[in-house]
């Protein structure tokens, strides 16, 4: 697409069902053509091009929270692949979604999506069971979102080093803040980062919550070993401690 940066770099494979959803989004991007606008295909009023996700959860609030984080990671991945933008999630409210479990997703100053959990009244209105996590991304907004200049990167020939970093932080800290710190301080070999988990409990302590980041490091020139990336992971931990009050979780 003319206004989209496209898949100009390799990224780690996504787990199911995220891979299917990303493939669907890419298929949509291809189908709408170079003009990137439904009005260019036929003389109909322009309508937003949306990617929607709905996940049924029958194991309680903890699993619903994990699915919300997965949806946030998915929307960020789609935005990076299609528009070369990094997203941030900010707490918000929307009719039909649970207060305190809803976030708006933005790329720069442009609001492009929403993620959250349906409130009980909405679940009952549709005669659903358990909990339902939903997410929505306005794909056509990526064409006008603030973007970095796309740069070509060859398909990697060498394997990545993947490490998990578990920390605790004050409950008021947002996941987007933690991801931003990791990306800023992870060094030139950091290929990607995902927030794999967020949880609370007595083992964490009052006023704190736990985060687990998955960091992917890779060199385009050689095979890395864990010892080479450990200093960068240590730098990330120090930055999280200084900026967000994080502590390592053992």
Task: Please state the overall shape, judged from the principal axes of the Cα atoms.
Answer: globular
Low-confidence stretches: 1-15, 30-41
Measured by DSSP, the beta-strand proportion falls in 25-35%
Number of strands: 9
- The mean pLDDT is 81
What is the helix tally? Answer: 5
- Kindly provide the radius of gyration, computed on alpha-carbon positions and rounded to a whole number of angstroms: 19 Å
Helix content: 25-40%
How is this fold's topology laid out?
Layout: H1 18-31, E1 50-57, H2 61-83, E2 87-91, E3 97-107, E4 110-118, H3 120-125, E5 131-138, E6 161-170, H4 175-185, E7 190-199, E8 208-217, H5 226-244, E9 247-248
Antiparallel strand pairs: 1-5, 2-3, 3-4, 4-5, 6-8, 6-9, 7-8
Helix pairs in contact: 1-2, 4-5
Care to describe what's here?
- By secondary structure, this protein is α+β, with helices and mostly antiparallel strands.
- It contains five helices and nine strands; from the N terminus they run αβαβββαββαββαβ.
- The protein has helices at residues 18-31, 61-83, 120-125, 175-185, 226-244, and strands spanning 50-57, 87-91, 97-107, 110-118, 131-138, 161-170, 190-199, 208-217, 247-248.
- A five-stranded antiparallel beta sheet has the order 1-5-4-3-2. The protein has a four-stranded antiparallel beta sheet with strand order 7-8-6-9.
- A hairpin with an 8-residue loop joins strand 7 (190-199) and strand 8 (208-217).
- Helix 1 (18-31) packs parallel to helix 2.
- The radius of gyration is 19 Å and the shape is globular.
């Amino acid at each position: 697409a003319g206004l989209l940066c496209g898949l100009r770099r390799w990224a780690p494979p996504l787990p199911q069902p995220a891979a299917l959803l990303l493939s669907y989004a890419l298929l949509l991007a291809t189908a709408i053509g170079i003009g990137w606008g439904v009005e260019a295909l036929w003389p109909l009023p322009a309508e937003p091009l949306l990617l929607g996700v709905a996940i049924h959860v029958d194991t309680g609030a903890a699993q619903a929270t994990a699915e919300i984080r997965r949806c946030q990671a998915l929307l960020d991945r789609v935005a990076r692949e299609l528009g070369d933008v990094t997203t941030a999630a900010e707490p918000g409210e929307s009719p039909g979604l649970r207060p305190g479990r809803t976030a708006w997703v933005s790329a720069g100053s442009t609001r492009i999506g929403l993620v959250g959990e349906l409130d009980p009244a909405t679940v009952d209105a549709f005669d659903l069971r358990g909990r339902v996590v939903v997410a929505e991304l306005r794909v056509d907004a990526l064409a006008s979102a603030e973007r970095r200049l796309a740069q070509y990167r060859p398909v990697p020939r060498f394997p990545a080093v993947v490490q998990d970093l578990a920390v605790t932080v004050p409950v008021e800290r947002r996941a987007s803040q933690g991801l931003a710190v990791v990306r800023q301080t992870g060094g030139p070999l950091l290929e990607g980062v995902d927030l794999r988990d967020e949880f609370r409990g007595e083992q964490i302590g009052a006023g704190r919550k736990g985060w687990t980041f998955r960091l992917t490091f890779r060199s385009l020139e050689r095979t890395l070993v864990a010892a080479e990336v450990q200093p960068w992971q240590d730098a990330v931990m120090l930055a999280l401690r200084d900026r967000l009050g994080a502590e390592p979780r053992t």
